[in-house]
Write a structure and sequence with these properties.
homodimer; mainly alpha; Tetracycline Repressor, domain 2; DNA-binding
Chain lengths: 192, 192
DNA sequence: TTTCATCTACCTACTAGTAGGAAGCCAAAC
DNA sequence: GTTTGGCTTCCTACTAGTAGGTAGATGAAA
């Protein structure tokens, strides 16, 4: 039995992914789950609170996802590969064709502060995870890093987000892989 | 004497850069330039037409900018550097802290078709320009390309857009350079 | 005298958000 | 064991404000 507030967030997420903060309304959610607008306000009094809760949940999901990925794959190489594969699959089957926080990051200047700070937190967290994986890989001589792990992590993250954008712009999921895969390959020692 | 329609686009551009397609209204423009809403409709009957015109103008400006950049700098190395420096300066002084089309690309699923196709055209054009510069550089043995020029161009473009996103998310213009400069350096033969 | 740019005045549809009430549930009080 | 009272959830009905867009008049310029 899934709670109504969860259902609301489940419906809101793809709407945000498609159109950003201003790209959906309480009425959209209302229509989608067959509940009155006012009832949504009962669960999330303001839109800022709704999106804040959504971003919080998204970050928790990401945290769990990255952790389970680290348990599933021992090698930093495989971990990175799995991370990229996840997004490739999402974009390919259109299930989650864009990162919620990447979407919102574009709208930072007009986001409510409480939302903006959470988006920033997600970026920090993701960059931190990538950095730690890159560092571990470098120590095991699996990766050759031209920059410090933190900078390489930023570069990789930007590539992934930029690739999502290009895949959207060209309406071609294949563009994502074409951009990210070589970017990953260049880190691997064996490839040189 | 600058025309009213130009003034409208001048005002609309930073609004779109800040908040995307749904992030501004006719009333915002009206307030900014001291003209009634209805007068804006005289110049641009619908919002889709306004934004289409804006993207058309933006692409023309970009086209001119890239051409003059090619005339100013003989070497592909310097051309690429100048392109990146342009954005670094824009983001640094907050004059144009985001590419209009990168912003709109994130909103592709909900853009009117006439706008979406123009955004796609800009991406094609920019990728084409980068590709031709990279190819010229490779032929002059200035660049060492791991992929074909077209793929390297896509990678570089994604890095630039992703770096813009990160600079926004972290509210730190320095992040842009930290991401893009090493990405550029890795292409240079001398650096290896 | 037509065309252009702008105006006032208006429209309908939608925005986020509020007030107040009805139904169901659950636990404590009688 | 039933009643009471509070809590949750959802509802109808509403608000003030904003969205994009239109009709028609005015005045100036070509």
């Amino acid at each position: 039995m899934i709670s109504t507030s969860e259902k609301i967030l489940d419906v809101a997420q793809p709407l945000i992914v498609a159109g950003g903060y201003n790209g959906f309304s309480y009425a959209d959610i209302s229509d989608a789950i067959g509940i009155r607008k006012a009832s949504i306000h009962h669960h999330f009094p303001t839109k800022a609170e709704l999106v804040s809760a959504l971003v919080d949940r998204y970050r928790q999901q990401t945290e769990r996802g990255l952790k389970s990925l680290q348990e599933q794959f021992a090698s930093p190489t495989d971990q990175l590969q799995a991370y990229v594969n996840f997004w490739q699959a999402c974009i390919g089957d259109a299930s989650l064709p864009f990162c919620v926080c990447a979407m919102l990051a574009g709208e930072m200047p007009m986001l409510p502060d409480e939302v903006a700070s959470r988006v920033r937190a997600h970026f920090h967290h993701l960059a931190g995870w990538l950095s730690s994986v890159l560092q571990a890989g470098a120590e095991q001589h699996l990766f050759r890093l031209d920059q410090r792990p933190h900078e390489e992590a930023q570069m990789l993250m930007a590539s992934v987000h930029g690739a999502m954008l290009s895949a959207r712009a060209f309406a071609d999921p294949g563009v994502f892989a074409a951009i990210v895969k070589p970017q990953l390959a260049r880190l691997l020692v064996a490839e040189r």
